[in-house]
What does this fold into?
Amino acid sequence: MSEIDALMARAREFLATAQMAMRRGDYNSTANRAYHAMFHAAHALLLSKGIRPMSHGGTMSLIGQHFVNTKELDEVCGKARTRPIFSVRGETTRSMNQWRRTRRRRS
It folds into this structure.
C-alpha cells in the first residue's frame, strides 16, 4: 500500500468515526474526527503532487498555496483552514481554549 493510499484509508476511518459520533450526538468528537479526516486527505493530496509537508501547519499552508490559491480547490477549503474548526455548538472551542490556557501556564 502506498503512503497516499494509507493516508486516504486513515482519512476514511476518521470520517467513519465522525459519522458514528454524530449519530450519538457527540459533537466534540464529531468535529475532532472530521478535522483529522480532512487533515489526512489534505496530506495525501499534497503527496499526490510530490509535495511533502513537514508539519501540521505546513500541510494547511501548502494546501492554500498549491490548491486554494490556484483555484484547484474551492475557496471554502481555504476558509476552513483559517477559521476555528473546533466550533461545533461552541463546546469544543471552549474546551480547546481551556486546553491552550492550561498548556501556556505549564510552559
Observations:
- The radius of gyration is 15 Å.
- The chain has a mean pLDDT of 78.
